[in-house]
Sequence to fold (278 residues):
Amino acid sequence: MSNKQHILRRITEVAKKLGRAPSLLEFVALSEISRYSVSSCFPKWNDAVREAGLHPRRLRVRPEDDELLKDWAKTVRKKQTLPSRRAYLLTGRHEPRTLEKRFGSWECVPQAFRKFARGKREWADILALLPVCERKEKGAANENSHCSITRNKGQHAQLQDRPTYGNPMDFRGLRHEPVNEQGVVLLFGMVAKELGFMVEAVQTGFPDCEAKRQIAPGRWQRVLLEFEYESRNFRDHGHPANGCDVIVCWRHNWDECPEGIEIVELCSIIESLGSLHD
Fold:
């Protein structure tokens, strides 16, 4: 089997595991095939995805609530039970984190779907599988009712004398998602090797990091990295586009990012890296 055929076969295998076409970073992490090997056969990653018979992922396209709920329901129908986050990650078209952010938590998705599907006969089989949530009288409190808890989710007043945390994620000892640039630096250090980076130096001035990555057998190249919590902070901080090769961020939200800058969005690959070591 040629190297090209091997890569196409592994793309198909990784896509089957994720339930969708992988990004290049996800593929490198899950397949243990280097970026150099991929680029030597396929100059453009999306060409490799298409040749493997898959549709490339659409980046930075916000799905509608209905689209998210319909896809979740298709997983319920396939499994005939409510899927766990991991089950949906392997079967659904979207990231579980996307549904959690949209509807409040993973446990809130069934009730969001109940509201969406009310009166729609095509979803009757899914509604029959959902847990019953009894309606409570106004003012009545039931500490065992999940619905009464999630209804108040995010509405508590912030206490000023203690720190705040990101959403729980339990990734290799890191209990919560980053909430600032320092968290991004720490998380990148935990996965840099798997992403193909060999860190040379980290500094407080721009750019934040100098690293190397392999571009050919026995050949490595220097790259300059800037850490940001969100990618558009790079623009807001006034950094010059020609002084950086890669932005490492928790969330990519800069649609007008210059084409010459590569984005490493950690939130989109942590799920895959985590499942690799489960």
The longest strand covers residues 219-230. The radius of gyration is 21 Å. Residues 172-276 form one domain.
